[in-house]
Design goal:
The chain is built from ten helices and eight strands. Helix content is about 35%, strand content about 15%.
Length: about 350
């Protein structure tokens, strides 16, 4: 009887140890502190210099790395008509990121230009294809990206609330085809580079549960949400609730894949800014350097305080007014960048610590 009790006790200890090790393994992924730096090559090519906290000229990527940023997000367009975000540029920037010891997160738009909830234009090279031919092109393109750039995170599409690669991949009008394209891309990534994490990206909070219900059968790892108070409201408690609900419902890690905040309502060029009024931001955080820092800290804390929260990414990090103070095609985001109008890094960078 005593031997039997000892065996039960020993089994209990082994099971407990095994479960605790499993829990430790499940939660051991590094918290992602990311910055989108997609515009950096273009801005640097026009002679712009960034300065660190000591007001010393420094590679912006190194400034971020030294501050604690561990991942850089990069936008990829298929065949851009402008001189940015093309394959070779992205591949080169990704290598710079790796050389700094940071992870590469690709935001693959599957478009020649900006893709978002209102724009999901098919690459011009894919016009006129049958759906079968289009699917093959998606698979080949995805394989090339994975094999040549080898990202740590592959985001299939950008803010694909109602699908991507229109009209074939429109979720509302061609749901079966949308899911087929998504599944094909996922399979290619898994086959070619199993270590790469796959993300599905939705803009906002409202409707997120519906979207991830629709995509539940897709093989992926991370749920990405965009959260900007100007477009998605100021209820950060609702953001936290949504992250918790999605993470637990789908057993996925969740990230705030895009967010930003103004450090001023002023401007530094003649390109109209997205934000310029107090009623466009969160009432608890001023449009000031300290307000920007406090808002980003709140986003970081919100994600950390959810069971499945894995990280955040700041968008427009580098997008300062790089074409001069009277430019009409400079930056609509210079008052939300993480470098000020003198190109010196702002206090919010300390949130990456």
């Amino acid at each position: 009887m005593k031997i039997g009790l000892k065996l039960v006790a020993l089994l209990t200890i082994l099971i407990t140890f095994s479960c605790s090790k499993e829990e430790e393994s499940n939660t051991s992924e590094e918290f992602i502190k990311a910055a989108d730096m997609s515009m950096l090559p273009l801005i640097e090519s026009e002679g712009t210099i960034y300065y660190n906290t000591n007001n010393i000229a420094e590679d912006a990527l190194l400034t971020l790395k030294n501050a604690g940023c561990n991942t850089i997000r990069i936008r990829l367009w298929h065949t851009p008509t402008v001189n940015q975000s093309g394959f070779n540029e992205v591949k080169s920037l990704a290598q710079r990121v790796k050389n700094h010891g940071m992870k590469v997160w690709l935001s693959v738009h599957y478009s020649d230009t900006w893709a978002d909830p209102g724009n999901q234009e098919k690459p011009s090279a894919w016009n006129g294809l049958t759906f079968t031919q289009l699917k093959t092109q998606v698979e080949n393109y995805t394989a090339t990206i994975v094999n040549e750039i080898q990202p740590d995170i592959f985001q299939i599409g950008n803010e694909i609330n109602n699908g991507f690669i229109y009209p074939d991949g429109n979720l509302e009008s061609n749901e079966t085809q949308f899911l087929s394209l998504l599944a094909s891309a996922s399979t290619v990534i898994r086959t070619n580079r199993p270590a790469t994490k796959i993300m599905l990206h939705y803009a906002g909070i409202t409707g997120a549960s519906w979207f991830f219900y629709k995509t539940a059968a897709i093989d992926y790892d991370y749920i990405g949400l965009s959260y900007y108070p100007i477009w998605h409201g100021t209820d950060i408690n609702l953001l936290q609730h949504t992250i918790t609900l999605l993470g637990q419902t789908h057993n996925k890690k969740v990230l705030v894949a895009e967010t930003s905040y103004p450090f001023t309502f002023g401007w530094n060029d003649w390109t109209n800014n997205v934000i310029g009024l107090a009623n466009q931001i969160h009432p608890n955080y001023a449009g000031s350097p300290e307000g920007q820092k406090a808002f980003l800290q709140q986003i970081k804390n919100t994600v950390k305080n959810t069971p499945n929260g894995l990280g955040f990414c700041y968008w427009g990090t580098e997008w300062i007014a790089f074409r001069g103070t009277v430019s009409t095609n400079g930056s609509s985001w210079e008052n939300q960048a993480l470098w000020d109008f003198n190109h010196k890094v702002l206090p919010a960078i300390s949130v990456f610590e």
